[in-house]
């Protein structure tokens, strides 16, 4: 799983990165982003991560500004020392809300929840693909492909090759 950490405190970011690596060594932290501006720039220039861990209060503004200025379409876990933002957090793709100081068991639960949601979403897409193909022996007219965090239909004649 590829994740980003939006955290302006270097020690907190390093601690969370260590926890994630301890929970699952296949979790790759793609970037540690300390500000709203840098996060938006990174999101615009890079492939969509599988998830993000966002501190709410950053040095330059609240991380909610990221969501107001960029369409975040991946699961988000908010990490903060304050419970004041709990309700607002769930307006922005939040799947979990962790209060600092972070403890490994709660971070593990958040990672598990992200994985479970991804499995359910993938299963639903596969069910839709099967339902769309009533006769398995007939050639496919289109495929549903993953593009970032979303799935898009592509006509067979528009496909040159698949690469993963």
What do you see in this structure?
- The chain has helices spanning 10-23, 36-45, 64-69, 86-89, 104-132; strands spanning 2-6, 28-33, 51-55, 76-80, 94-99, 142-147, 150-155.
- The chain is α/β, with parallel strands linked by helices.
- The chain has a 5-stranded parallel sheet with strand order 2-1-3-4-5. Strands 6-7 form a two-stranded antiparallel ribbon.
- The model has no long low-confidence stretch (mean pLDDT 87).
Considering the chains and any ligands shown, give keywords for the structure.
164 residues; alpha/beta; 5-stranded parallel beta sheet; 5 helices; 7 strands
List the helices and strands in order. Answer: EHEHEHEHEHEE
- What does the largest sheet look like? 5 strands, parallel
Going across the major beta sheet, what is the strand order?
A: 2-1-3-4-5
Shape field: elongated
The radius of gyration is 18 Å
Query: Number of DSSP helices?
Result: 5
Question: What is the helix fraction of residues, given as a range?
Answer: 25-40%
């Amino acid at each position: 799983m590829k994740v980003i950490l939006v955290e302006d405190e270097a020690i907190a970011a390093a601690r969370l990165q260590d926890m994630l690596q301890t929970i699952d060594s296949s979790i790759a932290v793609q970037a540690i982003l300390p500000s709203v501006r840098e996060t938006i720039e990174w999101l615009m220039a890079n492939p969509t991560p599988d998830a993000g861990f966002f501190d709410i209060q950053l040095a330059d503004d609240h991380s909610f500004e990221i969501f107001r200025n960029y369409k975040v379409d991946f699961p988000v876990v908010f990490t903060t020392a304050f419970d004041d933002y709990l309700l607002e957090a769930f307006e922005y793709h939040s799947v979990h809300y962790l209060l600092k100081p972070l403890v490994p068991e709660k971070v593990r639960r958040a990672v598990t929840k992200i994985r479970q949601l991804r499995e359910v979403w993938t299963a639903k897409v596969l069910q839709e693909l099967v339902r769309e193909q009533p006769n398995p022996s007939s050639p496919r007219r289109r495929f549903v492909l993953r593009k970032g965090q979303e799935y898009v239909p592509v006509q067979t004649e528009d496909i040159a090759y698949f690469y993963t």
